[in-house]
Amino acid sequence: MSIGREGPLIEFGGTIGAVCGRRLHFPLEGIRVLVAAGTAAGFATAYNTPFSAVLFDIDGTLVDSNEQHVRAWEAAFHRHGYEIPARVIRQQIGKGGDQLVPSLVPGIGAQEAKAIADGHDAIFRAQHLHTVQPFMDAAELLARVHDAGLKIALASSSKREEVEHYIRLLDVEDLVDASTTGDDVDKSKPAGDLFACALTKLGAVPAGQALVIGDTPYDGIAARECGIAMIGVLSGGFEERELLQAGAVEVYANVSALLEALGPADVRSVQPSSSTELHES
Q1: 121 near 159, Cβ under 8 Å?
Q2: Which end of the chain is more exposed for a tag (fewer CB within 10 A), N or C?
Q3: Where in the chain is the domain with CATH 1.10.150?
Q4: Cα–Cα distance measured from residue 217 to residue 241, given in angstroms and rounded to the nearest whole number
Q5: CATH number of 66-131
Q6: Tens digit of pLDDT for each residue in 115-133?
Q7: Phi and psi for 99 in degrees, rounded to 5?
Q8: pLDDT tens, residue by residue, 186-236
Q9: Are strands 32-34 and 133-134 parallel, antiparallel or unpaired?
């Protein structure tokens, strides 16, 4: 990783809106976390507590679906008279429709924005969902985390129907303790609501005891808003520097590389490779 020996200095704080039927406030104002050697283990040291939960993004992290979403968005915008290049859409993948559409069409009306988002959902489910495959070792990584005694939540901006499909596809029904989707919150990523909701569903796990694993800068921004450490993977198509700038403390090529780095040790310690280079598999 292109990260200094002292790691990034990250400031957390703020209040998350009403999510999962309750209002959450993370008491982290003014706390500045110096990440030792740029590793997730540094977060555990800074918070003086082991991790107790891991929150996984799904699209681009556990399953190979980002390009299918790009094509579905491109078609949905086209139907409404907007010609937006795939390369432009690709940079917004990771956001839910409530955030992605206004980012690409500033000033668009709420009704038209919803129609485009609904169109994307319909096109994706009809033409692309059946083509999505899990990344190698995705289920194995969840099993390793589960076997270490940590709670697991899946947190995705996608619809509930898609998340349930992916849980079956990965065959991890017995490993997942909770899941949150775009249907559970008012704002999708990069707002922190999905991760805040996941913490609530896991039994009010403290943010400092949780870890996010995701593939987009929007995972990093959402995690940082909640005061949660994030490890990034490059399998979604974003660059290492983009994930680091969004707050990732480590970046791996994919979940296979992360699984290999964890080794046989208890994942509670979260001590991947001590190298500060990009981890590949």
Answers
A1: yes
A2: C
A3: 66-131
A4: 10
A5: 1.10.150
A6: 999 999 999 999 999 999 9
A7: -105, -35
A8: 899 999 999 999 999 999 888 888 999 999 999 999 999 999 999 999 999
A9: unpaired
Nearest-angstrom CA–CA distance, 273 and 250: 10
CA gap 26, 16 in Å, rounded = 8
Class of domain 9-63+134-269: alpha beta
- Three-state secondary structure along 130-192? HHCEECCCHHHHHHHHHHCCCEEEEECCCCHHHHHHHHHHHCCCCCCCEEECHHHCCCCCCCC
Q: Sign (positive/negative) of CA torsion 69, 278, 256, 35?
A: negative
Model confidence pTM above 0.70:
yes
For residue 243, give both structure tokens.
């994930």
CB 257 within 8 A of CB 138: no
Q: If residue 79 lies in a helix (H) or strand (E), which one and from where to where?
A: helix 66-79
pLDDT of 63: 98
Would you state the pLDDT for residue 142? 95
